[in-house]
Write a structure and sequence with these properties.
By secondary structure, the chain is of the alpha/beta class. The protein folds into two domains: 255 residues, Metallo-beta-lactamase, Chain A; 40 residues, no CATH class. It contains ten helices and 16 strands. The strands form three sheets. Strands 6-5-4-3-2-1-16 form a seven-stranded mixed beta sheet, with helices on one face. A hairpin with a 2-residue loop joins strand 2 and strand 3. It starts with a strand and ends in a 9-residue tail after the last strand.
C-alpha cells in the first residue's frame, strides 16, 4: 500500500489555516516529500508521521513558496536521529538554491546529496520516480511516483521444477538466483504482470501534453488549481498557472481515477465552493485541504481515505 498526505495546499503566501505547498508519500517504511513550503513541519507534526524516515525530497521548482521550509525541516530530521543520506532532486538551479538555504542548517548528522534533473527516472526507496517538464516561468518539473507490484509468486510451479526453498524468496522479489551451478530466473515462478500504484503531482504550470502522459491512469492525480473561477483564466495564462476546469480537463484526458486540487491563490478562501467548475468535467475531483490523506491499495484490496 501507499500513503499520501497533502501537508500544504497554499500558493504564494501562507494563511492562518493553510500552509504552503508540500506533499508526503510513504511506502514500505520510507518517506518521500514533494516540495517544502512554510508550515511543512507543523503539518507533519500534527499528522504524526515520522521526520526520520524522509530520505528523498523532490522539488518542482525553486520559487520561495515551495522551498522556504527546507532548512528547518532538515534540522528536525537530524534531531529525529537520522544519519542516513537525504537525496534532493529538482530542476536546473536546485543545487545553488538548496546550498544557500542549507547555510541556515549547518552540521547536519547526515549528508545531503543534490541532483539536478530534466526528464528522467530513478528509484527512491521502494518508490520509482519519473519526472516530466511542465510550463512555468522558471524550470519546473512534474512527478509521477509509482509503487510497482511484482507478479504473483506461484509455489506449485516452483515445486514442479524442483527449485530449492532458499531460492523462493529472492525469486519472488524478481531476482535471479544461482545455486550449485544452476540458474533460476523469476519468470520460472512468477505469473502475469500486476498493476502497481501511482501518484502524479504537478503544480505551477499551464496545461501540457507531458502532464497528461505523466498522469496517465494514475490512481491519484494532484494538480494545481491556482484559480477556481474560469473568469480568471487570463490571469492563469499570464502567470503560468491553471484554473480548476483546466486541471479537470487534464485529469479526464489522462484517465486518472481521482483528482486533488491544490496550490490555491490566497484570494481563493473557500475552494470547495467553486469545485463545481472541476466536477462538471471530472466528477471525481476534490479540493485539497491541510493534511488530506489517502491510503492507496492494490486493485484486489480496498482504498481508505
Amino acid at each position: 500500500m501507499l500513503d499520501v498526505c497533502l501537508l500544504g495546499t497554499g500558493g504564494m503566501m501562507p494563511l492562518p489555516q493553510r500552509h504552503l505547498t508540500a506533499c508526503m508519500i510513504r511506502a514500505e517504511g520510507a518517506s518521500l516529500l514533494i516540495d517544502c513550503g512554510e508550515g511543512t513541519q507543523v503539518a507533519l507534526r500534527l499528522q504524526g508521521w515520522s521526520f526520520k524516515s524522509i530520505g528523498t525530497i523532490l522539488f518542482t521548482h525553486m520559487h520561495g513558496d515551495h522551498v522556504a521550509g527546507l532548512p528547518g525541516l532538515l534540522l528536525t530530521i537530524g534531531n529525529a536521529g537520522r544519519t542516513e543520506p537525504v537525496m534532493i532532486y529538482g530542476p536546473k538551479g536546485t543545487a545553488r538554491v538548496v546550498r544557500g538555504l542549507m547555510m541556515a542548517a549547518p552540521e547536519l548528522p547526515f549528508s545531503v546529496e543534490i541532483q539536478e534533473t530534466g526528464e528522467t527516472e530513478y528509484k527512491a526507496g521502494a518508490l520509482y520516480v519519473r519526472t516530466f517538464r511542465v510550463d512555468h516561468n522558471v524550470p519546473c518539473l512534474g512527478y509521477r511516483v509509482e509503487l510497482k507490484r511484482l507478479p504473483e509468486f506461484q509455489p506449485d510451479r516452483a515445486r514442479e521444477q524442483g527449485i530449492p526453498l532458499r531460492a523462493w524468496n529472492p525469486l519472488q522479489k524478481g531476482n535471479t538466483v544461482v545455486i550449485d551451478g544452476v540458474t533460476y530466473t523469476p519468470d520460472m515462478v512468477l505469473g502475469e504482470a500486476r498493476k502497481g500504484l501511482s501518484v502524479c503531482y504537478c503544480t505551477d504550470t499551464r496545461p501540457t501534453s507531458s502532464i497528461i502522459e505523466g498522469a496517465k491512469d494514475a490512481d491519484l492525480f494532484i494538480c494545481e488549481g491556482m484559480y477556481g473561477e474560469e473568469e480568471k483564466k487570463s490571469r492563469a495564462r499570464e502567470y503560468k498557472h491553471m484554473t480548476f476546469r483546466e486541471a479537470a480537463i487534464l485529469a479526464k484526458a489522462a484517465g486518472a481515477k481521482e483528482l486533488w486540487l491544490t496550490h490555491f491563490s490566497p484570494s481563493l478562501m473557500r475552494p470547495q465552493e467553486v469545485l463545481g467548475e472541476a466536477r462538471e468535467v471530472f466528477p471525481n475531483s476534490y479540493a485539497g485541504r491541510e493534511r488530506m490523506t489517502k491510503t492507496l491499495r492494490y486493485d484486489d484490496e480496498t482504498a481508505e481515505s
